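U., I forgot to send this yesterday:
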Amino acid sequence: MSNKPEAWLRGPLDDIPVLLQPVAYALLQAREEINELMAGFPEVLLWEKPAGLASPGFHLQHLAGVIDRLFTYAKGTQLSQQQLDALKAEEKAVENKPGLALLMEAFDKQVDEGIHQLKETDIAILTESRGVGRAMLPSTVIGLYGHAAEHTMRHLGQLLVTVKVLNSGRAQNLP
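Result:
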């Protein structure tokens, strides 16, 4: 991985409210690590599921989707039909198998949109209630942002392990 310090050790981020900086750091760190991890990753392994683990393709698609969904709830809105359709497509990704470039582009774009939303967030609303999903489960703006950061980092860790397992298996099969 890169020799530069992690995102949170590079100083405050311009225009991001101080209380939301940890969320932004997590998203930016995940983007850097995922882009580095997936550079040169063989397309043929993208949808492989070693030992029944989720595939790298699933993690990439899910990461973009979860950031989109949680940030939508943080705005106080429910998912659009397009987002619901994307969620269904995410569940059927193994059938559709989007390519690595498309998945990376979607993830990077979602991180950019998330950072923009954090910049626009008034800290006075962080403790406001937000309903999640059709059941309108209770959360708050800060809870949704925090979970987006935590969930992103959790999937980054899973993706890292899966990619390393797949790459080591490929290396062992080389002549």
